[in-house]
Amino acid sequence: MGEYSRRFNGDTRVLYRQAVRTPLPNKDAERVFYENMMRVADAQVKKAEMLEDPDIPLIEAYERQLEGISATYKARLNQIAGDDYERVAMEYHNGEREDTKGALAAYYFEGLWRMQQRITVADMMFFPIILRYPDSFTVNIRFTSGYMTTESVLYESPEHSEEDIDEKYFERYYNDSIYSQKEAAEKIRDWAEIIREEFQDPDEVPFDERKYGGIVSAGGRRGSVFSSMLKRVEPDPERFSDSIDHPMLVEEGSEARRTEEELLTEDELLI
Protein backbone atom coordinates (compact mmCIF):
# COMPACT_ATOMS: atom_id res chain seq x y z
CA MET A 1 0.00 0.00 0.00
CA GLY A 2 1.36 3.40 -0.98
CA GLU A 3 1.43 7.01 0.11
CA TYR A 4 -2.31 7.23 0.79
CA SER A 5 -2.25 4.19 3.07
CA ARG A 6 0.59 5.69 5.10
CA ARG A 7 -1.80 8.51 6.03
CA PHE A 8 -4.82 6.23 6.46
CA ASN A 9 -5.81 5.27 9.99
CA GLY A 10 -8.99 3.32 9.33
CA ASP A 11 -12.63 4.28 8.89
CA THR A 12 -15.06 2.12 10.86
CA ARG A 13 -18.04 3.71 9.08
CA VAL A 14 -17.16 2.05 5.78
CA LEU A 15 -17.48 -1.59 6.88
CA TYR A 16 -19.91 -1.31 9.76
CA ARG A 17 -23.03 -3.37 9.04
CA GLN A 18 -22.55 -3.13 5.28
CA ALA A 19 -21.85 -5.70 2.57
CA VAL A 20 -21.01 -5.71 -1.12
CA ARG A 21 -23.68 -7.26 -3.33
CA THR A 22 -22.43 -8.49 -6.71
CA PRO A 23 -24.75 -9.66 -9.52
CA LEU A 24 -24.65 -13.16 -11.01
CA PRO A 25 -26.47 -12.49 -14.31
CA ASN A 26 -25.33 -15.61 -16.16
CA LYS A 27 -23.42 -18.86 -15.91
CA ASP A 28 -20.11 -17.15 -16.75
CA ALA A 29 -20.44 -14.91 -13.70
CA GLU A 30 -21.46 -17.89 -11.59
CA ARG A 31 -18.40 -19.76 -12.81
CA VAL A 32 -16.05 -16.94 -11.75
CA PHE A 33 -17.69 -16.84 -8.30
CA TYR A 34 -17.45 -20.63 -8.01
CA GLU A 35 -13.77 -20.63 -8.96
CA ASN A 36 -13.03 -17.92 -6.39
CA MET A 37 -14.75 -19.94 -3.66
CA MET A 38 -12.80 -23.06 -4.65
CA ARG A 39 -9.62 -21.05 -4.14
CA VAL A 40 -10.88 -20.23 -0.65
CA ALA A 41 -11.44 -23.95 -0.03
CA ASP A 42 -7.99 -24.80 -1.39
CA ALA A 43 -6.46 -22.21 0.94
CA GLN A 44 -8.09 -24.00 3.89
CA VAL A 45 -6.49 -27.27 2.79
CA LYS A 46 -3.10 -25.56 2.44
CA LYS A 47 -3.44 -24.10 5.93
CA ALA A 48 -4.27 -27.55 7.31
CA GLU A 49 -1.19 -29.02 5.62
CA MET A 50 1.01 -26.33 7.15
CA LEU A 51 -0.45 -26.89 10.61
CA GLU A 52 0.23 -30.63 10.29
CA ASP A 53 3.91 -30.01 9.53
CA PRO A 54 5.83 -29.55 12.82
CA ASP A 55 8.72 -27.94 10.92
CA ILE A 56 6.56 -25.01 9.79
CA PRO A 57 6.00 -22.34 12.48
CA LEU A 58 2.33 -21.65 13.11
CA ILE A 59 2.83 -17.95 12.51
CA GLU A 60 3.90 -18.75 8.94
CA ALA A 61 0.58 -20.47 8.25
CA TYR A 62 -1.25 -17.54 9.86
CA GLU A 63 0.60 -14.91 7.85
CA ARG A 64 0.26 -16.91 4.61
CA GLN A 65 -3.51 -16.92 5.07
CA LEU A 66 -3.58 -13.17 5.72
CA GLU A 67 -1.46 -12.58 2.62
CA GLY A 68 -3.86 -14.65 0.53
CA ILE A 69 -6.90 -12.69 1.72
CA SER A 70 -5.07 -9.41 1.20
CA ALA A 71 -4.17 -10.42 -2.36
CA THR A 72 -7.86 -11.16 -3.03
CA TYR A 73 -8.85 -7.70 -1.80
CA LYS A 74 -6.14 -6.05 -3.91
CA ALA A 75 -7.38 -7.88 -6.99
CA ARG A 76 -10.93 -6.76 -6.26
CA LEU A 77 -9.75 -3.16 -5.81
CA ASN A 78 -8.01 -3.30 -9.18
CA GLN A 79 -11.20 -4.57 -10.81
CA ILE A 80 -13.22 -1.75 -9.24
CA ALA A 81 -10.91 1.24 -9.60
CA GLY A 82 -7.77 0.18 -11.50
CA ASP A 83 -4.21 0.79 -10.35
CA ASP A 84 -5.26 4.09 -8.78
CA TYR A 85 -7.59 2.45 -6.24
CA GLU A 86 -5.88 4.03 -3.22
CA ARG A 87 -6.57 7.54 -4.48
CA VAL A 88 -10.19 6.65 -5.28
CA ALA A 89 -10.70 5.12 -1.83
CA MET A 90 -9.15 8.09 -0.05
CA GLU A 91 -11.25 10.58 -2.01
CA TYR A 92 -14.35 8.76 -0.79
CA HIS A 93 -12.94 8.59 2.73
CA ASN A 94 -12.28 12.36 2.67
CA GLY A 95 -15.75 13.20 1.34
CA GLU A 96 -14.44 14.29 -2.07
CA ARG A 97 -16.63 11.82 -3.97
CA GLU A 98 -19.85 9.90 -3.27
CA ASP A 99 -20.14 7.52 -6.21
CA THR A 100 -20.49 3.73 -6.12
CA LYS A 101 -16.96 3.24 -7.43
CA GLY A 102 -15.57 5.27 -4.55
CA ALA A 103 -17.74 3.50 -1.98
CA LEU A 104 -16.68 0.04 -3.15
CA ALA A 105 -13.02 1.02 -3.31
CA ALA A 106 -13.21 2.45 0.21
CA TYR A 107 -14.91 -0.73 1.48
CA TYR A 108 -12.26 -3.12 0.19
CA PHE A 109 -9.42 -0.69 1.00
CA GLU A 110 -10.59 -0.61 4.62
CA GLY A 111 -10.72 -4.42 4.62
CA LEU A 112 -7.21 -4.60 3.16
CA TRP A 113 -5.84 -2.09 5.69
CA ARG A 114 -7.33 -4.02 8.60
CA MET A 115 -6.04 -7.35 7.31
CA GLN A 116 -2.55 -5.93 7.25
CA GLN A 117 -3.02 -4.53 10.75
CA ARG A 118 -3.89 -8.02 12.02
CA ILE A 119 -0.33 -9.23 11.44
CA THR A 120 0.83 -7.14 14.39
CA VAL A 121 -2.40 -6.34 16.30
CA ALA A 122 -3.79 -8.94 18.71
CA ASP A 123 -7.39 -9.13 19.91
CA MET A 124 -8.91 -8.24 16.54
CA MET A 125 -10.85 -11.06 14.92
CA PHE A 126 -11.70 -11.39 11.23
CA PHE A 127 -15.39 -12.43 11.00
CA PRO A 128 -16.61 -12.40 7.36
CA ILE A 129 -19.82 -13.84 5.95
CA ILE A 130 -20.35 -14.84 2.29
CA LEU A 131 -23.85 -15.58 0.98
CA ARG A 132 -25.06 -16.86 -2.39
CA TYR A 133 -28.53 -15.95 -3.69
CA PRO A 134 -30.18 -16.89 -7.01
CA ASP A 135 -29.04 -13.78 -8.89
CA SER A 136 -26.23 -12.35 -6.73
CA PHE A 137 -23.86 -12.90 -3.83
CA THR A 138 -22.83 -10.76 -0.89
CA VAL A 139 -19.54 -10.37 0.94
CA ASN A 140 -19.70 -8.82 4.39
CA ILE A 141 -16.23 -7.96 5.72
CA ARG A 142 -16.40 -7.79 9.51
CA PHE A 143 -13.89 -7.39 12.30
CA THR A 144 -14.56 -7.72 16.01
CA SER A 145 -12.80 -7.14 19.27
CA GLY A 146 -11.56 -10.30 20.97
CA TYR A 147 -9.95 -13.31 19.36
CA MET A 148 -12.44 -16.22 19.35
CA THR A 149 -16.09 -17.11 18.79
CA THR A 150 -18.18 -19.47 20.90
CA GLU A 151 -17.42 -22.25 18.38
CA SER A 152 -13.78 -21.56 17.55
CA VAL A 153 -11.10 -24.24 17.61
CA LEU A 154 -8.00 -23.10 19.53
CA TYR A 155 -4.41 -24.09 18.89
CA GLU A 156 -1.11 -23.04 20.41
CA SER A 157 2.14 -21.68 18.99
CA PRO A 158 5.03 -22.52 21.38
CA GLU A 159 7.25 -20.04 19.51
CA HIS A 160 5.00 -17.19 20.70
CA SER A 161 4.49 -18.18 24.31
CA GLU A 162 5.35 -15.47 26.81
CA GLU A 163 5.16 -17.90 29.71
CA ASP A 164 8.37 -18.71 31.54
CA ILE A 165 8.05 -22.48 31.26
CA ASP A 166 10.46 -24.62 33.22
CA GLU A 167 12.76 -26.61 30.96
CA LYS A 168 11.56 -29.95 32.33
CA TYR A 169 7.97 -29.09 31.32
CA PHE A 170 8.73 -27.47 27.99
CA GLU A 171 8.82 -30.71 25.98
CA ARG A 172 5.34 -31.61 27.25
CA TYR A 173 4.08 -28.10 26.43
CA TYR A 174 5.64 -28.26 22.96
CA ASN A 175 4.11 -31.66 22.20
CA ASP A 176 0.69 -30.53 23.45
CA SER A 177 0.92 -27.46 21.18
CA ILE A 178 1.79 -29.56 18.14
CA TYR A 179 -1.11 -31.89 18.96
CA SER A 180 -3.50 -28.92 19.17
CA GLN A 181 -2.36 -27.79 15.72
CA LYS A 182 -2.98 -31.24 14.23
CA GLU A 183 -6.45 -31.37 15.78
CA ALA A 184 -7.21 -27.95 14.31
CA ALA A 185 -5.93 -29.12 10.91
CA GLU A 186 -8.51 -31.92 10.87
CA LYS A 187 -11.34 -29.47 11.44
CA ILE A 188 -9.99 -27.03 8.86
CA ARG A 189 -9.96 -29.81 6.24
CA ASP A 190 -13.62 -30.47 7.05
CA TRP A 191 -14.36 -26.77 6.60
CA ALA A 192 -12.90 -26.88 3.09
CA GLU A 193 -15.51 -29.50 2.25
CA ILE A 194 -18.27 -27.29 3.66
CA ILE A 195 -17.18 -24.50 1.29
CA ARG A 196 -17.28 -26.90 -1.67
CA GLU A 197 -20.74 -28.09 -0.68
CA GLU A 198 -22.17 -24.61 -0.18
CA PHE A 199 -20.87 -23.13 -3.44
CA GLN A 200 -21.27 -25.66 -6.23
CA ASP A 201 -20.11 -25.93 -9.83
CA PRO A 202 -22.62 -24.28 -12.22
CA ASP A 203 -21.52 -26.67 -14.97
CA GLU A 204 -22.39 -29.77 -12.95
CA VAL A 205 -25.14 -28.90 -10.44
CA PRO A 206 -28.73 -27.89 -11.37
CA PHE A 207 -29.63 -24.27 -10.64
CA ASP A 208 -32.23 -25.12 -7.99
CA GLU A 209 -29.57 -27.01 -6.03
CA ARG A 210 -26.89 -24.30 -6.21
CA LYS A 211 -28.85 -21.03 -6.01
CA TYR A 212 -28.40 -20.66 -2.23
CA GLY A 213 -25.33 -21.15 -0.08
CA GLY A 214 -23.45 -19.46 2.71
CA ILE A 215 -20.58 -19.56 5.18
CA VAL A 216 -19.39 -17.53 8.12
CA SER A 217 -15.82 -17.83 9.31
CA ALA A 218 -13.56 -16.32 11.93
CA GLY A 219 -9.88 -16.13 12.73
CA GLY A 220 -8.06 -14.48 15.59
CA ARG A 221 -5.07 -14.53 17.89
CA ARG A 222 -4.20 -13.67 21.46
CA GLY A 223 -0.55 -14.11 22.32
CA SER A 224 0.44 -17.68 21.53
CA VAL A 225 -3.16 -18.88 21.12
CA PHE A 226 -4.73 -18.86 17.65
CA SER A 227 -8.38 -19.48 16.79
CA SER A 228 -10.33 -20.54 13.70
CA MET A 229 -13.99 -21.20 12.92
CA LEU A 230 -16.18 -21.85 9.87
CA LYS A 231 -19.79 -22.99 9.57
CA ARG A 232 -22.69 -23.02 7.16
CA VAL A 233 -25.19 -20.15 7.02
CA GLU A 234 -28.69 -20.43 5.59
CA PRO A 235 -29.37 -17.40 3.36
CA ASP A 236 -32.66 -15.55 3.79
CA PRO A 237 -34.63 -16.09 0.54
CA GLU A 238 -36.64 -12.91 1.27
CA ARG A 239 -33.61 -10.64 1.62
CA PHE A 240 -33.66 -9.20 -1.92
CA SER A 241 -36.75 -8.50 -4.02
CA ASP A 242 -34.92 -6.82 -6.91
CA SER A 243 -32.08 -7.70 -9.26
CA ILE A 244 -28.99 -5.55 -9.85
CA ASP A 245 -26.72 -5.06 -12.85
CA HIS A 246 -23.58 -3.82 -11.06
CA PRO A 247 -21.90 -4.30 -7.65
CA MET A 248 -23.09 -2.02 -4.85
CA LEU A 249 -23.02 -1.56 -1.10
CA VAL A 250 -26.06 -2.86 0.77
CA GLU A 251 -27.08 -3.11 4.39
CA GLU A 252 -26.15 -6.34 6.12
CA GLY A 253 -28.85 -9.01 6.14
CA SER A 254 -30.58 -10.84 8.96
CA GLU A 255 -28.03 -13.64 8.49
CA ALA A 256 -25.23 -11.35 9.66
CA ARG A 257 -27.12 -10.34 12.79
CA ARG A 258 -27.96 -13.97 13.48
CA THR A 259 -24.35 -15.14 13.28
CA GLU A 260 -23.27 -12.25 15.48
CA GLU A 261 -25.81 -13.26 18.14
CA GLU A 262 -24.96 -16.96 17.90
CA LEU A 263 -21.16 -16.74 17.79
CA LEU A 264 -20.07 -13.65 19.75
CA THR A 265 -20.26 -13.11 23.48
CA GLU A 266 -21.18 -9.82 25.12
CA ASP A 267 -17.46 -9.04 25.36
CA GLU A 268 -16.92 -9.08 21.58
CA LEU A 269 -18.10 -6.11 19.54
CA LEU A 270 -18.03 -5.28 15.84
CA ILE A 271 -15.35 -2.68 15.16
Question: Mind explaining what this structure looks like?
Answer:
The protein has helices at residues 3-7, 12-15, 27-52, 58-81, 85-93, 100-117, 167-198, 207-210, 254-263, and strands at residues 18-23, 124-126, 129-133, 136-140, 143-145, 153-156, 213-222, 225-232, 248-251. It has 271 residues and is an alpha+beta fold. The protein has one domain. The strands form 2 sheets. It has a 7-stranded antiparallel beta sheet with strand order 6-8-7-3-4-1-9. The protein is globular, with a radius of gyration of 19 Å. The relative contact order is 0.19. It holds the Pfam family HVO_2248.
Instruction: Report how far apart the termini are.
Output: 22 Å
What is the alpha-carbon Rg in Å?
A: 19 Å
Mean pLDDT, to the nearest integer, reads: 90
The largest pleated sheet is described as: 7 strands, antiparallel
List segments where confidence is low: pLDDT < 50 over at least 5 consecutive residues: none
Strand content: 15-25%
Number of domain units: 1
Q: From the helix content, strand content and strand pairing, which structural class follows?
A: alpha+beta
Task: Provide key terms for this protein.
single chain; 9 strands; 271 residues
